[in-house]
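re: ur question from earlier - yeah i can do the single chain one, its not a big deal. heres the input i used so u can compare w yours
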Amino acid sequence: MFKGSMTALITPFTDGKVDEKAFRALVERQLAEGTHAVVPCGTTGESPTLTHAEHMAVTEICINTVKGRVPVIAGAGSNATDEAIALVRHAAEAGADATLVVTPYYNKPTQAGLYAHFKAVHDACELPLFIYNIPGRSVVDISVETMARLAQLPYIVGVKDATADLDRPRQTRDAIGGEFIQLSGEDATVVPFLEAGGVGCISVTANIAPRACAELHEAWMKSDQETVNGIEERLMPVHDALFCESSPGPVKYAAALMGLCSDEMRLPLCEIAEESKQIVRAALVSAGLLP
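and the output i got, formated as tokens:
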């Protein structure tokens, strides 16, 4: 159920407010283009600047728009355990298929603290839970040993791995087994991640190139390496461009160029630089996403 191309959805804003109409249209486009699952309220969705009410509303809008056509993995993490528990419980009540819970940021917990945090969130709700391990943003890195302990809990089913360590999926598979679902959090390294034991990617690029991302994973599942390589080569400049500044600045600008939504963000994120805009535009043109 949880495999393939999964889009880390952007959250469109207009005049400082969540643009519900644009968000629903984005979700419908994902479904029409073959995306295998959607992920609202993650890093790409600017969850740190959403109020609790907005976070819950975006999750509900996504679930209500999808209507069960693909899985919805709701972003529900926080650096405060009680807050993460509240968001996970809300996601379950709203009808999410799973939750994505990021490692606590800024607090800098030990491995013992990380285990206790995720166990508390796990114990609060009977919903599949993906650990989101992203040391570059949260400072802490869950060790393979701690991940293996957490994997013994029945509702912790997998990880979104954004460590950029391509030896990690193999180590995790060796320690836990193949049933533990490993999803990449790095578009540019998705193919070697799949080769090392991953089964999907929670993708930024899929916001603007959902069909190509979905086709890459479908080709991988069919062992069609020629198609995989062709799509990877075409999208690599896009992957790189969408991280020329802090995400989701570049992908929101790309979405605006394609007429999908505004590129508006919330402070402390701001409009990307003119040089970055040129990089993004050139990458979209080279990939055939813009004329």
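Residues 83 and 199 are 30 Å apart (CA to CA). not sure if urs matches, ping me
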